[in-house]
Specification:
The protein has helices at about 15-25, 80-95, 115-120, 120-125, 130-160, 165-170, 180-195, 210-235, 340-345, 415-430, 440-455; strands at about 5, 30-35, 40-45, 245-250, 250-255, 260-270, 275-290, 295-305, 315, 320-325, 350-355, 365-370, 375, 380, 385-390, 395, 405, 465-470, 470-475, 475, 490-495. It has about 500 residues and is α+β, with helices and mostly antiparallel strands. Strands 1, 7, 8, 9, 11 and 12 form a 6-stranded antiparallel sheet that branches. Strands 4, 5, 6, 10 and 13 form a 5-stranded mixed sheet that branches. Strands 2-3 form a two-stranded antiparallel ribbon. The protein starts with a strand and ends with a strand.
Length: about 500
């Protein structure tokens, strides 16, 4: 038996409802978070709301909330009411991946977190915000200037360069020329590290330790410049901002294609430069229970998605906004779900588009997600590509990427729809062969097809094609059809 999916909100137990209400009350206090320690005891963790800006701790689980009211965007396009706005705010807090692609998770109680981050200091600095990067950039130079300035000042002080009798003595050779106080030592440190060389201050051969210190500071200065320049360049060259020009449709739709139901959403590239080797994947996150009773609150199930009509081939060529389809077949978790079941369910479909940025060659990843209330049953996306004759180009209306139109998709589960198709075929076969069972009709159909193949009966060619044989007989040209099994002659296939 496969794992049982708890997709319907109506099957929630009283215990789950009480737990959801308790979490709602705790969410009113933004400074405390209930967590369990290693011994299983419950305790409260205090957190700073300012540090949580842009990221929230998602302590919710699926299968608890029952959304039966209308969502923000109703099918009739009516104005949302207060209840819809409250439900929207609640579901936004419980979303794993935001519509902009940000991950709504936060790590707590990481052992030796600072030591682990400092072991990979380059990646840590690249992941920091820009204000902290600039602060580290400025501080690295100022600290190095000040530190070496103190060393230069102490070396001159020990040598006696600041004594009044040595300053007035014209035969005294100091370690650093034109060095009168700490300000002079600080300026000399800055000039040495960046090879400015104004010409007045310089080291002499009187102090060998000064020559060694000058070499050390030059090497350290080059390392600091290389490291900080590398961090700034790596942060500027990151393809993270490239995802801002990859747009997903706000809603996904369920429509019928060639007799089957498909979950379809749209994605487009808003830049003229293309995404190379782009491919799409999708996962459905839900709560499942195994046969042994194990509850997996956030189970990730891979969905088969593709750009073709059949939902195959996940490679995408983003010349214009394209459709990404998921076939709702026997392997789909939506196989037995009706429109009402989907609206009452608690799951999240996470969509990821990966590709190579053409100008830089870096790999980028754009993400979004769809909740059950963002799936429209019986709709399809409207066309947004047209040809502009005057300009001679294909015009793409990017403002219509979210525009949908209703269609005649049956509001029944996919499993029920397939059963109806099978029953209809069975009735048609029974009407063609009265008095025979379904198995007898199937065998008779197979036997008749085999008999027709052996007897050599062939279908005529299509209406737009004909076989032409150029053969001269008494100055006339004759045409005839050549079937399979006839003698091979010089034949030319033409298309009308």
């Amino acid at each position: 038996m496969p794992a049982t999916r708890e997709m319907n909100g109506s099957t929630c137990s009283v215990e789950m409802e009480d737990e959801w209400k308790r979490e709602e009350r705790e969410s009113m206090s933004p400074h405390l978070t209930n967590m369990e320690n290693e011994e299983g005891a419950s305790e409260q963790l205090q957190r700073d709301p300012d540090k949580d800006h842009g990221a929230h701790f998602n302590y919710a689980h699926f299968g608890d909330t029952d959304f039966k009211e209308a969502t923000l965007q109703t099918r009739s396009g009516s104005i949302p009411n207060t209840k819809s706005l409250k439900d929207l705010g609640r579901q936004e807090r419980r979303r794993i991946i935001s519509k902009s692609g940000d991950c709504n998770t936060q790590l707590y109680r990481v052992s030796d977190k600072n030591r682990r981050l400092m072991q990979d200091v380059f990646t840590t600095m690249v992941d920091m915000q820009w204000r902290y990067v600039f602060l580290a950039f400025i501080a690295s130079f100022i600290v190095s200037w000040f530190g070496f300035g103190v060393i230069w000042w102490f070396m001159s002080y020990v040598h006696g360069d600041y004594l009044l009798e040595n300053i007035n003595n014209s035969t005294f050779v100091p370690c650093i020329l034109a060095n009168k106080n700490f300000a002079s030592a600080f300026l000399f440190s800055q000039e040495t590290q960046h090879t400015i060389g104004y010409g007045s201050r310089q080291t002499t051969e009187e102090c060998p330790e000064a020559i060694i210190l000058q070499c050390i500071q030059s090497i350290v200065g080059v390392l600091i410049q290389a490291c900080m320049a590398g961090v700034v360049f790596a942060k500027l060259a990151r393809p993270k901002c490239r995802t801002n020009t990859v747009v997903f449709s706000k809603n996904a739709v369920i429509t019928m294609r060639n007799g089957g139901l498909f979950l379809v959403f749209r994605v487009g590239n808003m830049r003229r430069s293309h995404l190379l080797e782009a491919h799409v994947r999708a996962q459905l996150v839900q709560k499942v229970t195994t046969d042994e009773g194990e509850i997996i609150h956030f189970h990730q199930e891979e969905l088969k998605v593709g750009t073709q009509l059949s939902g195959e081939d996940d490679r995408a060529l983003l010349l214009w906004p394209i459709f990404i389809a998921h076939p709702i077949d026997e392997e789909s978790p939506l196989w037995r779900m009706s429109p009402q079941d989907i609206q009452n369910s608690n799951f999240e479909i996470i969509v990821v588009l990966e590709g190579i940025v053409e100008p830089t060659g870096n790999t980028t990843q754009a993400r979004t997600s769809y909740l059950p209330q963002e799936i429209l049953w019986g709709y399809r996306f409207d066309n947004l590509v047209s040809y502009a004759r005057k300009q001679g180009v294909y015009a793409i209306d990017c403002s219509s990427i979210d525009q949908t139109v209703p269609d005649n998709t049956p509001r029944v589960p996919s499993c029920r729809l397939q059963q109806l198709h099978s029953n209809r075929k069975a009735k048609a076969s029974s009407a063609a062969y009265p008095g025979l069972s379904t198995d007898q009709v199937t065998k008779a159909g197979l036997y008749s097809r085999k008999t027709s193949q052996v007897s050599g009966n062939h279908l005529p060619p299509p209406a737009n094609m004909y076989w032409a044989q150029n053969r001269q007989e008494d100055g006339h040209s004759h045409q005839h059809q050549q079937g399979v099994g006839q003698e091979d002659e010089t034949v030319e296939l033409k298309t009308a």
